[in-house]
Design brief:
The protein is an alpha+beta fold and 193 residues long. The chain contains 5 helices and 10 strands. It has a 6-stranded mixed β-sheet. A two-stranded antiparallel ribbon has the order 1-2. Strands 9-10 form a two-stranded antiparallel ribbon.
Length: 193
Amino acid sequence: SPEESLMLLDVRLFTVQEYHRMAEAGILDPDERVELLAGKIITMTAKGTAHEAAITRTERLLRNRLGEQVLLRLQSPIQVNDYSEPEPDIAVVRVDPLDYDDGHPTPSEVYLIIEVADTSLDRDRNFKAKIYAQSGIADYWVLDVSDRQLHVLREPAQNGYQNEIILSDDRTVSPLAFPNCVITVREMLRPIP
């Protein structure tokens, strides 16, 4: 079949530098919602209201509990390697005196990545998780707003995260880097009527 023939072809992957040059040259529209993952330019999924509200709630919780200890970046790029520059919903990163004016945060500067999933659960738990794990991101959470669960992925390795715990909305969690910051999963989700 034509699809099988395409799978046998060599695919040319883009580097982060080439991706930036395409944006600067106007090949990628500034309003286009894309990110570079594993050398491929991927269209980002549309964001629903539950998705956006969960980002707002979670950002507020982290800001209130961690204060000036961290910098919170919302839907902003991090450079995990030469071929991936994802834009996670929330990145909890080290404070930088220049606010990363000279480059996006790299894995050594990342405490925690959070993706909020409504329609993107499979992509976030598998494809993105493998990229984050391979780059050494130690703490990766996927908040599933549809099933009201938090997937906590830890122990990164080249083949993905070695540990995944799924927490229901009544359970608590703390970022690895900040064990005293205790969050109940329910606090990040839409209140139950």
